[in-house]
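Quick start: what a row looks like.
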Amino acid sequence: MESTPGKGSVFSLIIPLATAGNAGEATGEEKSQMPEEFPRGKPGQGQAILVVDDNKVNRELVRLILAKNGFRPYMATGGAEALELLSKNRYSLVLMDIQMPGMDGYEVTSAIRDPSSPVLDRDVPIAALTAHAMTGFAEECVRRGMNDYLPKPFSSGELLELVRRWVPDSGDSAGAGLPVMPAISSDGNPVFDREAFFAKLMGDRKEGLMLLELFLEAMPEDIETLRRAIEARDAPSCARAAHTIKGTASNGCAKELAAIAMTDQIAAESGRMADIPELFVRLQFHFSLVEEAVRKELES
């Protein structure tokens, strides 16, 4: 403001406008690096949730469910990336995979809770998303600094119920603020349960088909990783690769494929490497059945 006695005042107002090059929503990678204070607003309106998982199909499934319900999901492919994001941004909740290469979920949680940690919020709620839902697992999560856990595979309703417990103002235990999810339907097909798959995404066929395409892209890569580990007789790598396949198959509602992958994982963890080649042949065969069913769905 400029003021001159006897003449009056002149007010200047500067309004920042986005140019054509930066208008609109930032891309996923750009958004994940934005150093901002995220709002903790009304149910499903802007609360930021960090998803830490090395499995891209799992990440995309969780991202779709959260985004469709008004949350702001941010992705990290591993522990180091998660710690970097947490040192720049505040999140209402962290959804953490346990079995990841490099730092596992427990190690990432320990780094977050460390008093010397550079993260902005050392008390951020952390929930494990894991297939390791064995007896005593809940107690182990608490002992390691986590607040909650959700076993894989999970439905959209189960994930949103977990979010409701920990994200401020996202609804109470009676379900206020988030939609009540119907019971997951199933056609009972162990190769590819299409009804259960699309129910995970609340019937959104467009998003579901995109996820199925990602499934067909990721699974051959994971199977090849397992094949190389078998050739190298590397039991820990076999177990990790089989675990990844199990998670992807479970979220893709390919029940039989997930079961075979779990058998592979158990054999590798038990040191029974002689059993794995035969199991791998079965896994390849069942994936061919799943691939055929999924391609039919994509073409229908």
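That is the whole record. The radius of gyration is 23 Å. The chain is about 50% helix and 10% strand.
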